[in-house]
Design a protein that fits this description.
With about 140 residues, this protein is mainly beta. The chain contains 1 helix and 9 strands.
Length: about 140
């Protein structure tokens, strides 16, 4: 009886691990680590897309355009619908690397790595140069 229980536990662990091997497991609506941005993450073919949906904070004085962008020609573009991710490749096991993330709060673009820890937790590490020099945010899935 004990071996049947062990086999069942192993099967469930393998099933759970295989769920994170699927890149589409990251799809959904996420709340950014600072709690200020709602982001739609989608897989489009083999590319990961992150589109800013808006903010849960209803501040009427809040900027609605990309005013912090270093390129003056882009400062009038709307924040809602802005693409935040570019250039990622899937490494397997719920991890993406080689990409960049745009931070509309600072107008800066950072190198970035992503790691899906579980169904509702996405670690987003932005950095300059090497990953040691950077910051990690924990994004939380918003139930649709």
């Amino acid at each position: 009886m004990k071996s049947a229980t062990q086999i069942a536990v192993c099967f469930l662990l393998l099933l759970a691990a295989s769920a994170w091997a699927n890149p589409a497991a990251v799809e959904g609506t996420w709340l950014s680590g600072d709690g200020d941005g709602l982001v739609a993450v989608r897989m489009i073919g083999s590319e990961i897309s992150a589109t800013l949906l808006g903010s849960p904070n209803k501040d009427p004085g809040r900027a609605k355009t990309d005013v912090k962008n270093p390129a003056p020609a882009l400062r009038d573009r709307a924040l809602v619908g802005l693409e935040l991710f570019s250039g990622f490749h899937y490494d397997g096991d719920g991890e993406w690397s080689g990409g960049q993330i745009y931070d509309p709060n600072s107008g800066k673009t950072y190198s970035c790595k992503l790691r899906l820890l579980d169904r509702n937790t996405l670690k987003v590490r932005g950095f300059i140069g090497i990953s040691l020099i950077g910051r990690t945010e924990t994004w939380r899935r918003q139930l649709d």
